[in-house]
Design goal:
single chain; mainly alpha; 6 helices; elongated
Amino acid sequence: MDDNKIYLIERIVAGLSYPTYGLVGFVWLILGLFTNAKLRSFMQYHIFQSIFLSIAIYLLGMLLEFILNMLSLIPVVNIIVLNIVMFFNSPVLFGLSIIQVIITALLLYCGITAFLGIRTYIPFVSEIIDRNVR
């Protein structure tokens, strides 16, 4: 058996892990835990990267919301903050805002490259995952 060969099911699970914000990968990890199956490096890399990206997107959103709420309490700054928030939340493509389009494009890019059997490189994130997986 060739350890470097990436099977189709691994590519499908790794690819679906990104658009589902790591849910498919998490379920795959749980199933592997119950069946005592050993996860290969490619699967670990993409599953953990998708979970890490999901948590980072969520925490960044919470932090940004907190900062914007604090800035909106300042009298003159709140008008500037309101205009910036309105600009970034206005619908651009298919009813999605600029930020949602960027996040969706990133997740689709990662999912497609994972399906093609390529390790997706995202600065800082991939380096952290690579150090902890290998």
